[in-house]
Design brief:
about 30% strand, Substrate Binding Domain Of DNAk, Chain A, domain 1, about 575 residues, disordered N terminus, 27 strands, eight-stranded antiparallel β-sheet, about 30% helix
């Protein structure tokens, strides 16, 4: 997170340098102090596309981009002249300069570089993923290393400028949406990205809840609804009870590695297999050629949601050993597409069934189904949901715009007392690490927010004045397969024999799922300092918790195997195309 601009009397700090010692280009100007006043906009910060909306005369409207579109690609790029491009202009570089074009950053934001998730996705993208100074996942753009917060900040700044152009005034406040299944560090990363863009994030809103607002606000409804949100990079299923303007989440579930990108990858796999069958040689093109296939796969997927057949034709995809150009020409049918996508869609239906169980509901208890995200337009999605619920999905909500419209509607509640009540839930269990690497669950997933739980810890040494407790988020019984949030340091304890000093630690989650920690010593009832500012590397954690390397490796492999299974055979083609295969 960039620091506020210094006062005029303070000398300017030295310019930041890139990896080669050159002055680093300024992609985001350090923000001035934000006023906290003025209009509030709603931003759907998506994996593939983002959307901006605002209230105009009490009604939410979606803003058009400079190119005239209702959404903008969540992409940034450096062109051949080292000029930063954003949105549509950046997406145009995806085929020409894939290693200089950053997309899908939302999947990695807020994640440690050495986490199992990041390890498994490094090979999925054509650009380089690298650690930043704090050990978080970052990306290389030219000679520069950008944090994921900076990447998202650049996209948020584009959204801010769209609103300023429309309103002809400065915009410094926003309601920003995130997947319901986002972890606490990822939500904090979005706040940092907003600050970098010159926006005060007034509220972080879960995407399904936002879509439900667009559907049901001020409609005097009394219904239970399912929001099925299948976007470019993430999937969420959320069941809400709407009673007039009270929106209560009954259960939520999801997969932050299941979205349109994954469907595209399977289509690429299919196209390259057909290419090999027809041409008699395996695909051996470079990253640019592979990007062309990915672009064609996305177009085929979209076309086959509207028609029954589509011809994919890529002239001169690659040169064979004899120097002869080879074309890719495949006639795809909707039946082909549905066969390819069926396993991934079945995974979404499994999540929906789990959410029904968590909500203690039967399929017949759900009154309406709201489809959100571009992938939800696939006819097979509607068929599968109709098979489960026995009813058609709602057609009254725009799949691409609903989340942003809901955020804009909620923006009207920021500065005044409102009748809108949102009751959300914790998407993933929060707990503490135990000696040996076990995971003790403290606040269970799907607990209504705000929530708080307390537990006691005792000193393990004589005259111990400081204790530490590592906090994780996830559903596995071992910490290595869950996400590390940080380590609580409790200081200022009274001296005494081992075990005689006990501390009540309270974990509090506010309505936006932001974690706060409190600690109180039992005998004196004195509140002691507790902060969640400490972060350790996996090696340091392993040493502190006395976790065996074998246990750590087993959990990492278990999580890694799950991600590898999801990736499919497509990544073998990626390795070969980029020269990484054996």
């Amino acid at each position: 997170m960039l620091a506020p601009a210094a006062a005029p009397a303070t000398p300017a700090p030295p310019p930041a340098l890139d990896a080669n010692g050159q002055v680093r280009p300024i992609y985001l100007t350090p923000p001035q102090t934000l006023s906290g006043t003025g209009p509030v906009i709603g931003i759907d910060l998506g994996t593939t596309n983002s959307c901006v909306a605002l209230l105009s005369n009490g009604r939410p409207i979606v803003l058009r981009s400079r190119e005239g579109y209702n959404t903008i690609p969540s992409v940034i790029s450096l062109n051949a002249q080292n000029k930063l491009l954003v949105s549509h202009r950046a997406k145009n570089q995806l085929v020409l300069r894939p290693t200089h074009t950053i997309y899908g950053a939302k999947r990695l934001v807020g994640r440690p570089y050495d986490s199992a998730v990041v390890k498994q996705v490094r090979e999925r993208f054509h650009y380089e993923i690298t650690p930043d100074a704090a050990g978080r996942a970052a990306v290389r753009l030219g000679n520069d290393v950008l944090s994921l917060e900076e990447v998202q900040g650049i996209i948020l700044r584009e959204c801010k400028e769209m609103a300023e152009t429309h309103l002809n005034q400065k915009v410094e406040r926003a309601v920003v949406t995130v997947p319901a299944y986002y972890s606490e560090p990822q939500r904090e990363a979005v706040r940092k990205a907003g600050t970098m863009a010159g926006l005060k994030v007034e509220r972080i809103l879960n995407e399904p809840t936002s879509a439900a607002l667009a559907y049901g606000l001020n409609r005097e409804l009394n219904k239970k609804v399912l929001v099925y949100d299948l976007g470019g990079g993430t999937f969420d299923a959320t069941i809400l009870r709407i009673e007039k303007n009270v929106f209560e989440v009954l259960g939520t579930g999801g997969d932050i590695f299941l979205g349109g990108i994954d469907f595209d990858n399977l289509i690429v796999d299919f196209l390259l297999e057909r290419f090999q069958e027809k041409e008699g040689i395996a695909f051996s093109g470079d990253g640019i050629a592979l990007s062309r296939v990915g672009d064609a796969a996305e177009r085929a997927k979209m076309a086959l949601s509207e028609r029954n057949t589509f011809e994919v034709h890529i002239p001169m995809l690659m040169m064979d050993d004899g120097g002869r150009p080879r074309d890719l020409r495949v006639m795809m049918s909707r039946q082909d597409l549905e066969k390819i996508c069926d396993p991934l869609l079945n995974r979404t239906i499994d999540v929906v069934r789990d959410v029904l169980l968590d909500s203690k509901l039967r399929a017949a208890d759900v009154d309406d189904i709201i489809l959100v995200g571009g992938m939800s337009r696939m006819p097979l999605v509607r068929e599968k949901l109709k098979g489960l619920f026995g009813k058609n999905a709602q057609a009254s909500v725009n799949a691409d715009e609903a989340v942003a419209l809901g955020a804009a509607l909620y923006s009207g509640s920021v500065d005044k007392v409102s009748s809108v009540v949102l009751i959300d839930v914790l998407p993933m269990t929060i707990g503490v690490a135990m000696p040996g690497g076990g995971f003790k669950r403290v606040i269970e997933r799907n607990s209504p927010l705000p929530a708080q739980r307390s537990f006691a810890i005792s000193t393990s040494q004589d005259n111990e004045e400081r204790m530490e407790l590592s906090i994780f988020q996830g559903e596995d019984n071992h910490i290595s397969a869950n996400e590390y949030l940080g380590t609580v340091r409790v200081e200022g304890l009274p001296k005494g024999p081992k075990g005689s000093v006990r501390v009540a630690v309270t974990l509090k989650l506010d309505s936006e799922c932001v974690l706060h920690v409190e600690a109180r010593e039992y005998s004196t009832r004195k509140e002691v300092k507790a902060t969640l500012a400490t972060r350790y590397s996996p090696e340091e954690l392993q040493k502190q918790l006395q976790v065996s390397k074998e246990a750590m490796s087993a959990a990492e492999e278990r999580r890694g195997a799950d991600l590898k299974d999801r990736a499919g055979r497509f990544w073998g083609f990626v390795k070969k195309a980029l020269g990484r295969g054996k």
